[in-house]
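QA checklist item 7 of 12: single-chain prediction sanity check.
[x] sequence parsed
[x] length recorded as 478
[x] structure emitted
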Amino acid sequence: MKAIDSIRESFKTRQVKYGGYAALITLAVIIGLIFLNLMVEQLSPQIDLTYSGVFSLSEQTVQVLETIKAPVKFYGLWRPGEEDSSVMDVINLYLSRSRNITLETVDPDRNPGFVMRYDRERKGIGRGSLIVEGEKGFRVIPPADMYDFTQNQQGGSYVTGVAVERRITSALLFAGTGETPVVYELTGHSEIPLVAYGLQDTVERENYSLGSVNLLLTDVPRDASAILINSPTRDITRDEADKLLDYLDKGGRLIILADYSIQELANLNMVLASYGLEYNYGIVIETDPYYVAMDPRTEWPDLADHDITRPIADKSRTPVVLLEAMSLSQLDTKRRTVEITPLMTTSPSAFLRTDLFESSPTRVPSDIPGPLMIGAAVLDPSWVQGNEPQARIVAIGGGTLLLLAVQGFDANRDLFMNSLTWLMDRPENITVRSKSLYLLPMRMNLAQVIIFGALFIFVFPMAFFVAGFVTWLKRRHL
């Protein structure tokens, strides 16, 4: 009996009580974690922790999906179990967002007749392709088009971005409308065609058709959705300028990529002057290291808050870079209905070197001081009523924009494509860009370097030292 009483008394001690409470709390936590894991397993929640949102749909894609009322069929040309898991992750997001979209897997080896129905050009459709078919048409997305590739110095290539969402949303828009805007490239001034950069397929995959026009020989085609002037080396003629002005007066769309290689700007500036804008001949020299990409002639500009640049500033890991850029300026007199929005600007320390024979590394009296505008978007009129035509212009002082785009600067390409979609007033396509996999080193100016250096080298170590010293003093006197 004494032994039993002794055991009972031992359970009443403070140590046993605290130990029992701790055991009960531990048991409750374990049971709670088990139930939580079971719930999570049933719900299967997913969180996209990638910086560029590789495994989530953009807001614009969600808006497009909300407008789909007719059935849309996805055909995956692969054997069951051989699909690309990364592609399927994105496709499943579309399926979960819209009941009107369905997916069917088709083995191309067993169903060659089915594949031939969509191979109108008889070029072959490879295994791993995705066919998006709607009531107005269909688009075939080859597996190579679902990723962005950049060539390395050894002649090989590597993946720099995931373009699955970009391609599927573009195909959905075409399948639902069947419309293909035509972009005409101006010729006759030694312009560089998009095919020379290998960008023709990129533009056509975004539901644009490319053509060329020489305004010395003909008028602006009636089906022209936009005119592109890319890196000319000679000025346009007065007759061409008049044709462009007439086209813009009727609500036309124009995009110009030009730099100092054009040399003469009188007639081109006459077109822009009608909308309160002009190019300033010269080369931008950047002296602030924060804005220098490689050397003082390569500009890493600030991007304005605009439909064209906003998705690049928010999502892209690669910067927009311009080589030997030319600046633009707003004229004091312009139409009241015209709205000019700067797209890209330099630092206040930059200047425009107007005398190209001047070799001084610092600003001289003939230079134009910064900050300089090197890209602008123009609306006329800035307001629209009913079917009133609205002229739109994008002018960029960088003829090398697309040259650098094919050398790994994906944001340059996105800036160009966003400009096209903004000109066409197709906002649903602007932010659906490739999800970049490129991680750029942190960009900091001198003040930020000093602040972060002081925090991590002095403030944080000192805080830990002080906390440890105070704790030691308290325990020493216990």
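[x] summary fact logged: The domain at 181-436 is CATH 3.40.50 (Rossmann fold).
[ ] second reviewer sign-off
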